[in-house]
Amino acid sequence: MHIQFSPPDITEVEINEVAEALKSGWITTGPRVKKLEKKIAEFVGAGFSDDGTPRCVCLNSQTACAEMTLRLLGIGKGDEVITSAYTYTASASVIDHVGAKIILVDTQKDSLEMDYDALEKAITVNTKAIIPVDLGGIPCDYDKIFGIVEKKKDLFTPSENDIQKAIGRIVVLADAAHAFGATYHGKPVGSIADFSAFSFHAVKNFTTGEGGAVVWKRIDGIDDNDIYRRFQLLSLHGQSKDAFSKDQPGDWEYDIVGTYYKCNMTDFTAAIGLGQFVRLPKLLERRKEIIKKYDAALRPLGVKTLPHFTENYVSSGHLYITNIPDITGEERNEIIRKMAEKGVCCNVHYKPLPLHTAYKNLGFDAVNFPNAVARFTNEITLPLYTLLKDEETDYIVKSYAGILKDYLK
Question: Is the pTM of this model over 0.90?
Answer without folding.
Answer: yes
